[in-house]
Amino acid sequence: MTDSPPAAAPTRTALVCVDVQNDFCEGGSLAVTGGAAVAAALADHVRAHRAEYALVVASRDWHVDPGAHWSDHPDFVRSWPVHCRAGSEGAELHPAFATVADELDVVVDKGQYGDGYSAFLGADRAGRDLAGLLREAGVGRVVVAGLATDHCVRATALDARREGFAVRLALELAAGVDPDASRAAVEELRAAGVTV
Ligand SMILES: [Zn+2]
After folding, report:
1. What's the CA-to-centroid distance between 37 and ligand 1, angstroms?
2. Which of 64, 98, 180, 191 is the most buried if burial means most Cβ atoms within 10 Å?
3. 25 in catalytic set
4. What is the 11 CA–ligand 1 centroid distance (Å)?
5. Using a CB cutoff of 8 Å and minimum separation of 24, what contacts does 29-37 make?
6. Within the chain, which residues score under 50 in pLDDT?
7. Does domain 12-191 fall into CATH 3.40.50.2300?
């Protein structure tokens, strides 16, 4: 008997908290209605359910020079007011969510020189990408929450499916920029195999 046993399927779950940053909450430069409430609810969720997650991940929009992603005349579809400038207060995690900063296993920054909608485009401080970090931790299932449903949450959930993870969108822990676009994003995610 020299055959090695088959590798166990990854069964652990990660929570990915997308862009819960000051600029996306009330008072920020690109505020999402309900953003601060999501920040508080997500912090409560992490405190109550920490043990269920192999990894708790936060992504940050972290722009240095994102080109046409920033505009003085934004269309709020592909171009946006200046937001989440790397190192600025607006790019910090919202204070309500930052109360669980010690519970975060991984922080990935994205969008330094481009749109960077998906957390899967980001890297941690050591330059490791999110998909690799999840696989290394034995994660097979990803729960996605945060801001905003119709943009970075959507892109992150779609990329998680493309990377082969089972994905659930925690709709009660997310908020969108535009109600119609958010509804369309939820339908698109369902069609891509995301549980909502
Ligand atoms: Zn951005």
Report:
1. 20
2. 98
3. no
4. 32
5. 29/81, 29/82, 29/83, 29/90, 30/80, 30/81, 30/83, 30/84, 32/147, 32/148, 32/175, 32/176, 32/177, 33/175, 34/175, 35/94, 35/147, 35/148, 35/175, 36/94, 36/96, 37/175
6. none
7. no
